[in-house]
Amino acid sequence: MENQLRNQEENGVNAQLLQHRDSNMINPYQKNRNVYTKKSNILLGLSIFLIVLSTILNILFQNTIFNTSLDVQQSIQKNMDVEFLKFLMNIISNFVNPTIVIGLLILIFAFSRKKFEILNFLLYFAFVSYICSIMKTLFASPRPYWVGNKVSQWEWVCYQEYGNPSGHSLLGPIFYEFILRNYILRKINKENKLARVAATIGIITLVALILFCRLYLGMHALNQVFYGLIIGISLIILYRLYFEITIKRVLLYLVRCNIDNSKKPKACVYILSVFLLCLILCINIYILQDTVKDKSNENQWEIQIEDKCNIKELDPLKAFYNRCFIDCSGVCICFSLMLGFLYSKHPEFLLGRYSNQSNVFLRSLVITISSLVFIVGFILLPTGEMVFLKFFFQSIGVFAAGFCLIYLAPILLFKYNLVQPIHKELQSELTEELSTEKKHPKIYQNQKESQEGDRFSINANFENNHKNSGDDYEDHDIDFQNTYDLYKPQNTSNGTKSLQNDKNEQQQNNEKRASKEIN
Length: 519
Known about the structure:
Blueprint: H1 2-24, H2 28-79, H3 83-93, H4 98-111, H5 115-139, H6 167-184, H7 193-216, H8 222-259, H9 264-292, H10 298-308, H11 320-327, H12 332-343, H13 347-350, H14 360-379, H15 387-415, H16 424-439, H17 441-452, H18 455-465, H19 481-484, H20 492-518
Helix pairs in contact: 2-8, 3-7, 4-5, 4-14, 5-6, 5-8, 5-11, 5-12, 6-7, 6-8, 8-12, 9-12, 11-15, 12-15, 14-15, 16-17
């Protein structure tokens, strides 16, 4: 009996020690991730709450704030009626011009190796622009210079679509937060806090100036500017905490479908189905608003636009619902990018996995022509006053431009040696890995499970390597590391030597194991 009691006590003590050991061996990375998840959930809830609250307030008080804004803007224009200031404000306002933004993204795409990151953001930015156009159609609010003679129109480009919310206020913070985080702060060491704070303040000041420009030039009222700003900040939070990772996972899945032909048809059907749903939503909203909304004020607005913009006759395709509806065609670029990832012949280029790139001018020229040659032709096609025909042609042009940027440009770059491919043996190893997954899923699953044990050490090393650098790291990149490490850029000679050394080491290990078994 005494021995049994003693054994039970020892077993109890051992169980407590094991429990204590296991509690101390909890992955600290997982602890940090749990804390991060709680904070991110709070921020996600807060951003959604801000979107809902600002929308409700905008609906309830838009007329009151709009009328107050007319008096405020009249006073601003009266006290600051200086030609040089008008010129300066127009330049600052054009920092968020859609054409300039797309041009900057294309240039960054041509110069930077982080093409996957840029395409990820471009997809989100285009979809947000589509949502902004739909919101303008639903609110159908006039711009300040349309109403009465209090506010003048000082913008170089006379915008004639509806103004609520302000597209500059909504898209400006999203675009410049991306530039700040990914191309400015990343270049500054994290220990240099003064420079990082100065860069952040500079971007915030630029965005604030853009918001003031929209009021000063008579393009938007106070409620439209602040509503767009709140929506823009909320969408930044949603992108950083959810959509950036989600879009990345979708695009990487499409790359895997690209390599494995059996998955292509199913992925293509999904993409086209969602694409058609977006187009149907846009068309239905346009038809509903065109038939239901009261258009009694549009005649007065047309007179003001023709007078203040020095237009003899208003083009119906460039004003009111029609313009907002045609702008919805920008959503086509989202799905053309997805199809480009699915059918691209050089997915390693889209992932930034190539050895080097040369001749900056020619490379930029190839990418620009590939993305713009189709869209120019479709935009210039004569359509008369047929809104749906204009929307159809512009949608085809945008879709073709996005697809050519992803499909045609890499082919030309590799063909004319403007970008060097990765080593062929690395490509064959990737193909072999995918064939193993397809033919022997159990073997592949066992290999994946054996690699899971090293996941924490990979994360720890990855974090330590980037701790003192200016680069930001994201843990979800590790999830795809095993599959896409073979796309890493390497010089041909170094790649051959490293592969040969790995093979020699593997052969020596096999010989040692065989000798042990014989002994």
